[in-house]
Design brief:
alpha+beta; four-stranded antiparallel sheet; about 20% strand
């Protein structure tokens, strides 16, 4: 009987010791809390705020201290669903927003606001409607930076007491109604067509200007070339005349040579398809006299007769043409070879 009692006492003692050990282990386990990096834990002691647990190993009093759910201290990105917003010109647009925020005070984020994420969403929606409501559609589409800046200032000021810092607010998309989108596309298409026509006209204008400038420069250069060519030609003719004049004076020609050269020059007066009539000059008589004297008495008589006929007033008709009668009424028809035949 004593052995049974002793066994029962031993078992009871062992159970009590095990319970105490388990209790101690559980107490130790609950008194040690390891907080991950970029997290924070709020400790409540007997229902009141006691302290904030930082990342690392922390010790709390079990059964007295209560650790609330950990709060993420990293910067968070939240994309809110599209919100209908009415612009100043009474158009409803759908705007998607993205908010970048970070919890800076775990205690304020826990006790100052019940749901800071929902509060940020609602505050973003109302602020967005206030800002965009004062702009027309064109300003809302082209003033994203201005809208982002105003949203960030308002949200950062309002969420400061909640222990939240709003770093950035971005408008992800602004979608006007379908009818407005079609009108905008037509307007942009018309604007692009107008710009294309303007550019084409400008190109044509520049092309015409360049062509005119090129023609002007070409005409100027051509005129300068012709002027220089005329000057060079005149210089050459002047030099040729000077050379011939000098050669004539150096050679001292007599009257016979001059008369012969004069007679050789006469056929050239009728040279050319446009020459229908030419007049025998009065100096021909003197040339015939001088030339006839070179062939003796017979040549002098013939030259005198020809000179008398020419002095009576003769006219010569170019080959293929009609003749005009000189004073005196006597006409001479030029042969096809360029010589003149006295008329009876």
């Amino acid at each position: 009987m004593n052995d049974a009692t002793q066994l029962i006492v031993t078992i009871v003692v062992t159970v009590i010791i095990l319970i105490i050990v388990i209790f101690v282990l559980v107490t130790l386990f609950r008194s040690i809390r390891i907080i991950p990096q970029a997290r924070a834990g709020v400790v409540e002691r007997l229902g009141r705020y006691h302290k904030t647990l930082n990342p690392g190993l922390n010790v709390v009093v079990p059964f007295i201290d209560k650790v609330r759910p950990l709060i993420d201290m990293r910067e968070q990105v939240v994309s809110f669903p599209p919100q209908p917003v009415i612009t100043e010109d009474n158009l409803v647009v759908s705007i998607d927003t993205v908010v970048y925020f970070q919890v800076t005070d775990a205690r304020a984020a826990t006790y100052e606001i019940a749901n800071y994420l929902g509060a940020v969403e609602q505050l973003t929606t109302t602020t967005l409607r206030n800002v965009v409501g004062g702009l027309n559609l064109e300003q809302a589409l082209t003033s994203r930076d201005n809208i982002n800046g105003q949203l960030r200032l308002v949200l950062d000021e309002a969420t400061g007491k909640w222990g939240i810092r709003v770093s950035r607010v971005e408008l992800k998309a602004i979608e006007p109604p379908v009818s407005i989108q079609d009108s905008m596309e037509k307007q942009m298409r018309a604007e692009r067509d107008r710009r294309a026509l303007i550019l084409t006209a400008e190109g044509t204008k520049q092309s015409e200007i360049l062509n005119a400038e090129g023609s002007r420069q070409a005409a100027i250069l051509r005129a300068e070339g012709e002027a220089k060519a005329a000057v060079l030609r005149a210089d050459g003719e002047a030099k040729a005349i000077a050379t011939v004049f000098g050669a004539i004076h150096e050679g001292q020609p007599d009257n016979l040579l001059l008369a012969y050269q004069y007679l050789q020059t006469l056929p050239k007066l009728a040279d050319g398809a446009s020459n229908k009539l030419w007049i025998i000059p009065s100096e021909l008589t003197e040339a015939l006299k001088g030339l006839g004297s070179a062939f003796g008495p017979a040549g002098a008589a013939a030259a005198a007769a020809a000179a008398a006929t020419a002095a009576g007033g003769t006219a010569a008709t170019a080959p293929g043409g009609t003749g005009a009668t000189a004073p005196g009424g006597t006409a001479a028809t030029a042969a096809d070879t360029g010589s003149a035949t006295p008329a009876s």
